[in-house]
Amino acid sequence: MRVKAPLIPSQPQPPAEPRPLHRTTPLAASITGVAGYPSKLVIYQLRASRFWWVRYYAHGKILRKSTKAEQKAPALAFAKLFYEDSLLRAREALAQRSNTSFAACARAAMAEQAAQVKRGEITPVTHSNAQYRLRKLVLPFFAQHEVSAIDYALLQQFLAHMGECKPALGLTTMAAYLKLVRKVLLHAQRIKLLAHLPQFPRVGARDQPRDYFNAGEYLQLWRAARRMAGQVWELRKVVIAGSVQTQYALAGQGLAGHLVRRVRIHPDLAPLIQFMVNGFMRPTDIKWLQHKHVQVVRNAHSYLRLRLPTSKRHSDPIVTMPMAVKVYARMLQRAKAAGREISDQDPVFGANYASRDLAM
Fold first, then answer.
1. What is the CB neighbour count within 10 angstroms for residue 137?
2. I need a surface site. Which of 233, 303, 329, 343 has the fewest CB within 10 A?
3. What's the whole-model pTM score?
4. Using CA atoms, how far apart are residues 264 and 358, in angstroms rounded to an integer?
5. Buried b vs exposed e over 196-231: b needs ≥16 C-beta within 10 Å?
6. Closest residue by Cα to residue 159 from 144, 170, 174
7. What is the DSSP letter of 99?
8. Cα–Cα distance measured from residue 194 to residue 146, given in angstroms and rounded to the nearest whole number
9. How confident is the model over 231-289, as pLDDT tens digits?
10. Would you tell me how many other CB atoms lie within 10 Å of the CB of residue 11?
11. How far is 89 from 4, CA to CA, in rounded Å?
């Protein structure tokens, strides 16, 4: 026969201690509604601040803000203004919270782009141009708007706004501004502030090929550069008949007006013109071209192989025409005759300028 163990009465458990409230948790006893306004609009106090705070739930978001008031009466007055401002911003599709505004997303997008510059994915000039365009037109128009409220109609208004700018913007420039707006909204979509991108208005760009020198004009330019080598020219602003005009003249000719710049025509200008034409190069390529980038190839056909620093995502070497070999050889001979030693790090053109921007 099995004997049951006697029942032992359970010991009473001490009551659980309440969890301490966080410093930003509203004090329950302080929560006060605003008479005549929705029940979701309240003021309250918390341990983290000596001021009263206002809270309002609207449009699926909880909006909070410090009233900067220590007394209840001014805090209630602030809450009423806060409520009215919230309604106004909702009616005009403006951001209710700073972190969902277009301006906040633009700052984050530019920070991400700055990181791309450090990684070498884009050039500093591209980043600088984007920042300039943001400050000039994009932020003044979109800054306070909620990113989720930007739609085709608002983008069309922005396009119309750009069309009224003075001086007038080209179609390509307008398209670049819209592309920047799209970049910011795409960032907002990636961080889940935007469900999908709005449709963008299309800007029809006209084909505007760059002008060029024909053979006769090219020869005239090259001869003038040779003839004027060593001359000092002045650029002056002159007031004629009430309007400011730009005039050029040789230094010492007594031209009146405000002196803007004095320039000596460098002897390298004529060979530079030849080198660029026969090397299919842009001025920015010349700016960073060093002797280490130049390889002379002499086979059945002589040419230069130029391995320039990457620019505009182009990193392939350039193969020049034969004339570029002759131009480069003559430059080296002149440097040797002048007793100037050339290192691989020296610029091919404008080596006498400490600043590459000034050399340009």
1. 20
2. 343
3. 0.49
4. 12
5. eebebeebeeeeeeeeeeeeeeeeeebeebeeeeee
6. 174
7. G
8. 10
9. 998 888 888 777 888 888 888 777 778 888 888 888 889 999 999 999 988 888 888 88
10. 6
11. 75
